[in-house]
Amino acid sequence: MRKIIIAIDGYSACGKSTTAREVASILGYRYVDSGAMYRAVTLYFLDNHVSLTNPKEIDKALDQIHLAFHVNSHGATELFLNGVNEIGSSSLPDLGLDCPPITQAVA
Known about the structure:
Blueprint: H1 16-27, H2 34-47, H3 55-64, E1 67-71, E2 77-81, H4 99-106
Antiparallel strand pairs: 1-2
């Protein structure tokens, strides 16, 4: 059977991740935390002082970002930003308010 991608959309803190993890577990799918991807890009932009009003700077920064998902020894998917696993779901709690402007800038 060919597997498909399932995306769950909704408001912040409405249970998307909890639901997605459970659905993935039941179906034998891999859970991918897309929110972690946004936080990773936000972290990179903040750490590297990327100007959100400079398209060339944004393009250059995006070229420098490498995101990779790896499965750990417990079967959980972890996101690595440029080879470093620092994007745990609870490790970046203060980035939430910074994500929307950066998301708009790179769209």
